[in-house]
Write a structure and sequence with these properties.
Number of helices of chain A: 1
Oligomer: heterodimer
Number of strands of chain B: 16
Strand content of chain A: over 45%
Largest sheet of chain B: 9 strands, mixed
Number of domains of chain B: 2
Helix content of chain B: under 10%
Distance between the termini of chain A: 76 Å
Order of helices and strands of chain A: HEEEEEEEEEEEEEEEEEEEE
Number of domains of chain A: 2
Chain lengths: ~300, ~300
């Protein structure tokens, strides 16, 4: 008997462990996007022989500086738009390299036809440390700052257009709506529809920088104090009928603590008896920047 | 039986947890400079060989003073001197009182602990003593004088806009260069303070005599340094500094030590570019150094050999 109870308990535990649990939103059901929190990911290719976990070369050797860009989001980055700049080292210390380059190929976003996304390795040359090393080794750290323009597309599939709020049929105005964001470092975490006056509705989007880097409006300077984005409703959503603002600013939002709220409100009241649902599409545009680093140990040859 | 099963289950869980807790490979502490030999605060280290000189010797006996010297610093000694003194030359006649051309290789990758020992021996054929003494105490002093160099090397952040609130990413922050506390020499760079402004890099380099001996002006000769140095020839160090390939101007270029410490301000002016970067700061200190050891010897008269005046 005890043995049977024990077996039943084990089976129950295995079954529970297999459960997903929690409030996970099923992004793939009904979502027009793959989703994800990444845009372009950059990594240094190996510098050379690894000793004790550190790439190591001798002072009379060179090491290649190559950076691989992978597009893990859903937007495409055109040729020459992903800029990479090497930092943290002096041109007086190293020779044989260039310090600024861009992608030579288009970096396609992830799609059903390209599940891995576009990829390119950018070659900065073979670096050689040219200062006479008086110590047994020097750990040089090479940084690379990369910047690229990106877009996040946001869909709220069932916005409720209802003029008579006493009518309980078809849909509800005051509620959190299902929202889908295309893969990118800026995402919309939630969307809520609200009343905004007689015959008026509004949608509030909670935007967040989840990529770990910095963000600014397209072609604007990055500001270390806050991030910035631009946004607009797509043509399919009749942007002329809406006014979209963030903290009172038209078409632009400032991210404080990596968060911002965009509010889109109908300009004019709906006609009487209006009752339908419609998808509203928003596009968030921005330049994104991130920094990677890699150390290399340059050993004295004695 | 049940208890036995419970105990076995607990033991299995403990074993699994122990295996899970293993990190797999020994992690070395951060910042440990494996293989670096530029540590320590000594240069040439002297030691009398045991029994040479002996603590006691009888009149008429032969005596040797053998000095082992080893370079515990990171700079090669060439053309050094070892002098023998401190004793009454009327009674003790060693075959020589000086060795010149002393050389001793410093620590390097193949000799990281500085264990290459050399010996200088001074021989005395027959010990004498005054006629009217039964015991003649003497101090044998060995003094080494040599030229030396300290290399102090550390990472420095060069920031052309240290106080700017600009929009450029900074990959490093201006601060004291990471120079280790000892550099394998008896004179060390004890600390460095960084001051950078647009188009000017400046470091205040503090130095100190950490070896316990006497610092000699690099420009002064080290011959006869055991007895003929004057005050103007001691406690002076020549300093040179550079970062990347840029030679800095140090003022003063010869540091005067007071109480064993001193400093110089080294600066460089020019185009630093627009962005912060890391590079190596190289500081070289050139000087002479003197260190001594001594041993006491009692010279005794043999019994029955009194001579009364």
């Amino acid at each position: 008997m005890k043995k049977h109870i024990f077996i039943v308990l084990i089976i129950a535990m295995v079954a529970l462990a297999g459960c997903e649990g929690g409030n996970t939103e099923d992004q793939t059901t009904g979502s027009p996007y793959k989703g994800g929190a990444q845009g372009i990911i950059a990594n240094f290719e190996s510098f050379g022989v690894v000793e004790n976990g550190v790439p190591t070369i001798y002072e009379d050797e060179t090491f290649p500086i190559e950076i691989t860009l992978k597009n893990k989001g859903e937007d495409t980055v055109e040729i020459g738009k992903a800029d990479i700049a090497l930092k943290g080292i002096s041109g007086s210390d190293f020779e044989g390299i260039v310090t600024q380059k861009a992608n030579a190929n288009k970096l396609d976003g992830i799609s059903e036809f390209n599940t891995l996304g576009g990829e390119e390795t950018v070659d900065f040359g073979d670096a050689k440390y040219k200062i006479d090393l008086k110590t047994s080794y020097y750990d040089a750290t090479v940084f690379a700052s990369y910047k690229y323009p990106y877009k996040t597309h946001v869909a709220v599939p069932k916005v409720c257009f209802k003029e008579d709020l006493s009518d309980k049929s078809v849909c509800n105005v005051e509620e959190t709506k299902q929202v889908f964001s295309s893969g990118g470092p800026i995402t919309v975490k939630s969307a809520r529809e609200t009343r905004a006056g007689a015959g008026l509705i509004a949608i509030e989007y909670e935007v967040e920088n989840v990529g770990g880097g910095e963000v600014t409006k397209p072609d604007a300077e990055f500001d270390s104090r806050y991030g910035q984005i631009s946004f607009s409703l797509d043509e399919t959503s009749n942007p002329g009928n809406w006014e979209c603002k963030a903290a009172g600013q038209d078409g632009e939002a400032r991210l404080v603590d990596n968060k911002a709220t965009i509010r889109c409100k109908l300009n004019s009241p709906m006609e009487k008896k209006t009752l339908y649902t419609k998808q509203i599409d928003l596009t968030i545009s921005y330049d994104y920047r991130d920094l990677i680093q890699q150390s290399v140990r340059i050993k004295s040859k004695g | 039986m049940k208890l036995k099963k419970t105990i076995i289950s607990i033991l299995i869980v403990v074993m699994l947890l122990s295996v899970a807790g293993c990190s797999g490979s020994t992690k070395k502490p951060k910042n440990q400079l494996d293989g670096t030999f530029r540590t320590g605060s000594q240069g040439l280290v002297l030691k009398f060989v045991t029994g040479a000189p002996p603590p006691e010797v009888y009149e008429g006996d032969r005596m040797d003073a053998s000095i082992e010297y080893v370079n515990k610093g990171a700079f090669d000694v060439t053309s050094g001197y070892i002098y023998l003194g401190g004793y009454d030359k009327n009674y003790l006649h060693f075959d020589r009182d000086m060795y010149s051309g002393i050389s001793a290789k410093g620590k390097d990758e193949f000799n990281p602990d500085g264990n290459l020992i050399n010996t200088a021996t001074f021989s005395l054929g027959s010990v004498n003593m005054p006629d009217n003494a039964d015991i003649f105490p003497q101090t044998i002093k060995a003094t080494a004088c040599y030229k030396y160099r300290t290399y102090a090397i550390g990472k420095a952040c060069i920031d052309p806009d240290p106080y700017g609130i600009g929009y450029a990413e900074k990959v490093c922050a201006m601060g004291p260069p990471q120079i280790s506390g000892s550099q394998g020499a008896p004179v060390a760079v004890t600390s460095v303070e960084a001051q950078t402004s647009r188009n000017r890099v400046q470091f205040k380099v503090n130095v100190g005599n950490v070896g316990g001996g006497t610092v000699i002006d690099n420009a002064a000769p080290i011959t006869d340094c055991d007895s003929k140095l004057d005050r103007t020839q001691i406690d002076k160090i020549d300093i040179r500094a550079k970062f990347s390939d840029n030679e800095m101007k140090c003022e003063p270029s010869t540091i005067r030590l007071t109480g064993g410490n001193g400093f110089a301000i080294c600066h460089w002016e020019g185009d630093l570019g627009r962005e912060a970067y890391e590079t190596l700061l190289n500081i070289e200190l050139d000087y002479g150094y003197r260190s001594s050891i001594s041993a006491d010897v009692k010279i005794r008269r043999l019994p029955g050999k009194y001579t009364y005046g």
